[in-house]
Amino acid sequence: MAQMKSLENESARVILKENREKSVKNYHPWIFSGAVEKVEGNFQPGDIVPVFSSKGDFLAKGFINPHSQIFIRILSFIEEPINESFFRNRITTAAHFRETFISQQSNAYRVIHGDADHLSGLVIDKYSKVLVVQIFSLGMERLRSQIRAWLVAQFSPQAIIERSDSPSRREESLKSRQEIWEGSLSDNIIIEENGIRYRVDVWKGQKTGFYLDQRDNRARIAKLAAGKKLLNCFSYSGGFSVAAARMGAQTTAVDASSEAIALARENFSLNGINPAAHRFQVQDVFEYLKDEKELYDIIVLDPPAFIKKRSHLAQGSRAYKEVNRLAMQRLRPQGLLLSCSCSSHLGWEHFQKNIFVAARESGRTVQIIGRFSQPLDHPVNIFHPEGEYLKSFLLRVV
User: What 3-state class would DSSP assign to 53?
Assistant: First the structure.
């Protein structure tokens, strides 16, 4: 049997500085440039190379990129061959996990979640028979053609779309890219989640087309929403609104994008719910909350990341505090507030402090009745806590 071709650079290796291997021995998937003593041998950025301690002990293998602060993105901590079989097995294992636990609930979910699935720089979302790929690392960029072939073999998709348009690509010296890899793109991609149908725009929509990471929170709010008056802020395509309206809630969706609100109306109709019986507002959420005089039983705050860099922490924290303060003032006594942050730089403790200040300034008594992180198709590698970005508090505002 012929041996499978290696994808590694076998003539180069990275040597770490003395006593800088601790994070690698703790299985953290990133090695920063400051920990690197030297690179021996010739290499090209994006190559897969081995990493050794200053004493010559093998530590890991990963993508090298001297143009990034993340000098090495680790793929494996053991001396195993990295070839096509290595990547196919990783993709198959991750896909099987999602299919086992989510496919009965939804036909849309995240198949690959980067470092959490030991595939640094690769994200793949599945929308029924369409795959959306995001590439964030130079190493994965170098493997684009292979990734395409592996996905076709694994999923036989109707289409594969690349949405590598994140600003984080610049940190890897990569330009944005958006193109169709396979098949043709339909304007009518319909997914189903907990019996609810949503139309998804994977080409122009936010994130990769839908907020898959809020699946569990949509189900939670739906269970609480019967007969309630719900305000969905930063509503995008109305995911929370439709889930709540289907249970008998009276809903208001607010988003600054007219395209998003139009899609939300479509999703109401798609589920046999008359959009005319609900309210849709194209407006900045902060302005809406300042102008609005009505009170609500439930408010959902799922804003975009206010903190995209660590340097934005102070300014972004003020924005989280302010939007929560305004929302608390629009809740009836005993009302519920689902407050979310998708800023990875904002930790749980800091986010809770923002909510504490909001409660104090609004003059409301607030109870935490739930804390929720990411759903199981967006797992967090225990050795890579930076991968936990979504944080949600369910609050009772007395």
Answer: coil
Alpha carbons 312 and 180: distance in angstroms, whole number: 34
Q: How many residues does the chain have?
A: 398
CATH superfamily of 13-76: PUA domain (2.30.130.10)
**Distances, alpha carbon 351 to alpha carbons 30, 345, 368, in Å:** 25, 10, 13
Residues of the chain with CATH 3.40.50.150: 211-397
Helices 144-155 and 84-101, axial angle in degrees (round to 10)? 40
* pLDDT for res 1: 44
Domain with CATH 2.30.130.10 in the chain: 13-76
CATH of region 84-183: 3.30.750.80
CATH class of 211-397: alpha beta
Band (3; pLDDT cuts 50, 70, 90): low
End-to-end CA distance of the chain: 70
Banded pLDDT at 224 (limits 50, 70, 90): very high
- Cα angle 14, 19, 24 (rounded to 5 degrees) comes to 60
Task: Note the pTM of the prediction, 2 decimals.
Answer: 0.95
| Phi, psi for 236 (deg, rounded to 5) | 50, -120
